[in-house]
Design a protein that fits this description.
alpha+beta, five-stranded mixed sheet, two-stranded antiparallel ribbon
Amino acid sequence: MDKTHTYIYFGIESNGQIGSRGLVSNERGFFNPDNITKVLGIQPFSCWKKGDKRRNGKEYLFSSWVAEKSDIERLDVKAQVLDTIRNLKHKISILKAIKEQYDVNYVIMVVQSIYGDEKPLISFNEEIIEFCYLTDTTINFDMYIYPDEYEVTS
């Protein structure tokens, strides 16, 4: 298990349409990430607002706020999701208010890099399902599967 790893985070993103230029925020989907940080009292590890410049100089066409990353050394998805929502599950009313004010999507993103035949434990308990139900949060997976002999470069 020295190569296989998983990290999980919670994200808020503008709702919109995906077109040739990527995601384009609906009018009500635009939000200032600083306002989200203030109302939730949680510092994001990544955020931008519609109109901010990307590294390539083009503007973002949607807003994003990403926080509560769990990258603890384990392959137990349930434990990591519980770690991710630990500070959010007591803020469900605030998350509902944000969703009423803005046209946004909530996501728990599970990113896994799996090497060889290692198998992560993927399950969700009632606490996770209830949080997702009450906040209208989806769970997405981004999985990278590598042969055992694949070289890891940092």
